Structures are given as structure tokens and as C-alpha cells.
């Protein structure tokens, strides 16, 4: 209850009801109490901050609706993927129309729920996420697995996205573990980053940068697919399509030819279609010597 009460919607509705009440008091007042009722209404109008709260609630409505409109057209894309900008102003118009429907007959909100405002919100959010994504800093920790085998941890500084990369001593294949919330932060400036905000930055190329940086540290290793989160599947497919011998991934071309990835030599991929997938931003690797906690 208290959460809703203090949400932008709750704050807004509370003030609307207070003013409505004050106006009713004025209308119902006799001549002897009218001046006091009017005074109370004026005081509310000057000091309750209704306009600012309406702005906040309108922005929240538009933000939600533009994210919804984008999700309807591009399922599984990042919420603020830069490609969203290519769909403006269409998405903004859709979002504003939806927000107006939700506002019903609210005359204070309607003028705020414009496509121009929705577009502005979309651009702000895309920029905010892009600033995080464009940060080139990646921390590197050389450590060992619980069994004492070498392992590296890579963590993108700004987003907290991270992965563990180890080579299986038995078969020599590389393994990737990339659940950020299972890997303690190695960022010396943010040792308590628990990685729980990873979804905000998934699907924007940071994972690819981490995987490619790990591969560069282990130039002769082939990386098996193992168990993948749904978010890692498209990433693995891209890596496989760029370098099928070194990266396992779901692949129609390989399954049609019944290629068993782990047993296949480089020659079996010689005719494989290749789509390069270089890191969009050259990483700046900073080696740290200890996990932060
Ligand atoms: Zn393939």
C-alpha cells in the first residue's frame, strides 16, 4: 500500500483528490465560510506541487508505454537498444496514444502525453544505456577454479556484466560461466556490485567483448557451448558464425552436415559461411590481482 501511495501515480492521484475536495468545499460553502474554503484551495494550488507530480507521472506512463511498444516489435531485444531510435517517431506516437488511453479523461495529464515527450524520453534512455555500454574498461583477474586449474574472470566495469573462463584439464575445451550474480565482483571501485542489474545491459554487445577478450587470452582454446542462458544463445550463434571452429553454437549449417563440433577439425568448417562479429569497442583491459571480497 505505502509503495503505491508514494509511487508517481499515487502522489499524483493524492493531490488531484485533495484539490477536488477543496473545490467541492468552496462550492458547498455558505457566504460565511467561503473565504476560508477559497483560501485553502489557493494554498493547495500554490504549494502542493501538482504540476511537477503530474509531469513525473506522465513521464512514467510514457516511459512504460514506449518500452512496451518497442518490446512488441522487437521481442528479446534490450529495452533501450539503439535500434529503437530507427523506429521513431512511430514508436513514440504509439506510446503516446496508449498513454492517453490510460489517462482516461484526465485533462491535466493529456497535454503532457505527447509523442514529442515520448520521443525525448526514449532518446534520453538510449543515451544513458549507451554511455554505460560504450565504456571500454574491462577488469581481468587471473585466478584458479576450486580444483586449482587456471581461470580468468572478466568484468565490464560500467555495467557489471562478467564471466568466468576456464579450460577443462581433461578434454582441453574452454568453458564459460556467465551468471553475473554468481560471480563476485572484481571491480576495485565497486566491490559490492552484485551483478543484478545485468538485464539492463544484456544484448548490447558487452558479452561479446568479454568472450572475445577471453579468447584472445587463450588463443588456442575451443569454447564449448555448455549450458547457456537464453541471453547467451544469440551471442554464441554470432561467435560461432564468425569463427565456427573455435566457438560452439546452435547452427543449422552444421546440423545439416551432421558435424559434431567437438570432434570436428578446422577443415570441416572450411566451407562454413562466415559472418564477422568483431567487438564494436576495443576493450581496455585492467588486470587486478584479487577478487574484491
Ligand atoms: Zn556451424
How is the secondary structure organized here?
Blueprint: H1 2-5, H2 8-28, H3 31-47, H4 50-73, H5 90-103, H6 115-133, E1 137-144, E2 150-156, E3 162-167, E4 174-177, H7 206-217, H8 232-242, H9 252-256, E5 284-288
Parallel strand pairs: 1-5
Antiparallel strand pairs: 1-2, 2-3, 3-4
Q: Could you explain how this protein is built, in words?
A:
By secondary structure, the protein is α+β, with helices and mostly antiparallel strands. It folds into 2 domains: 132 residues, no CATH class; 152 residues, no CATH class. 43% of the residues lie in helices and 10% in strands. It has 9 helices and 5 strands, in the order ααααααββββαααβ. A 5-stranded mixed β-sheet has the order 4-3-2-1-5, covered by helices on one side. A hairpin with a 5-residue loop joins β1 and β2. The two termini are 37 Å apart. The mean pLDDT is 92. The structure holds zinc ion. Zinc ion binds next to α9.
Quick rundown:
The protein contains nine helices and five strands, in the order ααααααββββαααβ. It has helices spanning 2-5, 8-28, 31-47, 50-73, 90-103, 115-133, 206-217, 232-242, 252-256, and strands spanning 137-144, 150-156, 162-167, 174-177, 284-288. It has a five-stranded mixed beta sheet, covered by helices on one side.
Amino acid at each position: 500500500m505505502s509503495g503505491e501511495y508514494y509511487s508517481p501515480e499515487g502522489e499524483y492521484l493524492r493531490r488531484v483528490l485533495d484539490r477536488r475536495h477543496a473545490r467541492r468545499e468552496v462550492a458547498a460553502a455558505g457566504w460565511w465560510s467561503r473565504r476560508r474554503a477559497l483560501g485553502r484551495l489557493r494554498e493547495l494550488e500554490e504549494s502542493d506541487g501538482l504540476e511537477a507530480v503530474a509531469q513525473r507521472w506522465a513521464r512514467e506512463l510514457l516511459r512504460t508505454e514506449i518500452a512496451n511498444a518497442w518490446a512488441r516489435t522487437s521481442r528479446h531485444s534490450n529495452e533501450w537498444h539503439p535500434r529503437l531510435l530507427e523506429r521513431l517517431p512511430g514508436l513514440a506516437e504509439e506510446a503516446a496514444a496508449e498513454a492517453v488511453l490510460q489517462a482516461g479523461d484526465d485533462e491535466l495529464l493529456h497535454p503532457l502525453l505527447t509523442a514529442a515527450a515520448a520521443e525525448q524520453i526514449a532518446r534520453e534512455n538510449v543515451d544513458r544505456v549507451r554511455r554505460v555500454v560504450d565504456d571500454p574498461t574491462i577488469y581481468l583477474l587471473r585466478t584458479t577454479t576450486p580444483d586449482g586449474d587456471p581461470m580468468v574472470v572478466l568484468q565490464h566495469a560500467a555495467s557489471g556484466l562478467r564471466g568466468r573462463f576456464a579450460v577443462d584439464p581433461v578434454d582441453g575445451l574452454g568453458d564459460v560461466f556467465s551468471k553475473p550474480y554468481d560471480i563476485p565482483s572484481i571491480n576495485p571501485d565497486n566491490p559490492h556490485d552484485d551483478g543484478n542489474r545485468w538485464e539492463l545491459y544484456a544484448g548490447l554487445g558487452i558479452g561479446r567483448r568479454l568472450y572475445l577478450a577471453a579468447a584472445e587470452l587463450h588463443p588456442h582454446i575451443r569454447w564449448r557451448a555448455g549450458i547457456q542462458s537464453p541471453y547467451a544463445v544469440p551471442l554464441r550463434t554470432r561467435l560461432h558464425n564468425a569463427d565456427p571452429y573455435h566457438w560452439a553454437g546452435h547452427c543449422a549449417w552444421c546440423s545439416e552436415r551432421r558435424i559434431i563440433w567437438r570432434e570436428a577439425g578446422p577443415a570441416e568448417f572450411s566451407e562454413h559461411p562466415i559472418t564477422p562479429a568483431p567487438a564494436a569497442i576495443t576493450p581496455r583491459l585492467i588486470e587486478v590481482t584479487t577478487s574484491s571480497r
